[in-house]
Write a structure and sequence with these properties.
By secondary structure, the protein is of the alpha+beta class. The chain is built from ten helices and five strands, in the order H-H-E-H-H-E-E-H-E-E-H-H-H-H-H. Strands 1-5-4 form a three-stranded antiparallel beta sheet, covered by helices on one side. Strands 2-3 form a two-stranded antiparallel sheet. The two termini are 25 Å apart.
């Protein structure tokens, strides 16, 4: 568990990376190759300028579940569900619905891909555990990139389809200097299999 930092301060946090490497090398600590670990990233609610911004952020994540799961390195799990935003309508047909996450957040599922029950943060729970700096940084970069990408999108942008994966991927590529680990991982996403751990760990 780390204290709140900016993305840049994580890049510069040499003692943290040395400590993690020490745990791996000298204490046989494991994270990726076990079913008991996950990587949770919290982003402050104050990072979002409005409820609409939060809605766009959540929509980006939940409307692109396959790509998010491939980046995260694990499938939809009971600890980090992507399916909890689909509610049956009057005909029993599942419909995308973020209302419990935005307005009634204490009535939503804690074990969600994004847990919105916390008072001060949104918690991204869907990352597979890792002790690799590049893997941890790519999770932090994804969180930061999703927050910044959705910050100033207009309703017209959303209607145009800018919450679809390809738009976001292009934006990350354009900003690859800010998100180098995420950019590299995203460039391999077509080769990633959620069955083949070796490819997932690439």
């Amino acid at each position: 568990v780390t204290h709140p930092h900016t993305l840049y301060s994580y890049v510069q946090a040499t003692p943290l990376w040395n400590y993690i490497e020490d745990l791996r090398a000298n204490y046989n600590a494991r994270s990726w190759d076990t079913d008991s670990c996950g990587l949770h990233v919290h982003v402050s609610r104050s990072a979002f300028k409005s409820g609409a911004h939060t809605h766009r952020f959540l929509t980006l994540i939940y409307k692109n579940p396959k790509e998010m799961m491939k980046l995260a390195g694990r499938k939809n799990s009971r600890y980090a569900q992507f399916s909890d935003v689909y509610k049956p309508d009057e005909w029993g047909i599942p419909r995308f619905d973020l209302s419990n996450k935005i307005r009634n957040r204490h009535y939503t599922e804690r074990y969600s891909a994004v847990n919105t029950q916390n008072d001060y943060t949104l918690e991204l729970r869907f990352f597979r555990g890792t002790m690799a700096k590049a893997g941890i940084m790519s999770a932090l970069e994804l969180t930061h990139a999703a927050t910044e990408y959705t910050r100033n999108l207009s309703l017209a942008d959303v209607k145009l389809g800018m919450l679809q994966w390809d738009w976001f991927a292009d934006w990350v590529a354009t900003n690859n200097g800010i998100y180098p680990n995420l950019y590299i991982k995203m460039s391999k996403i077509q080769q990633v299999s959620l069955v083949n751990r070796e490819k997932m760990n690439a």
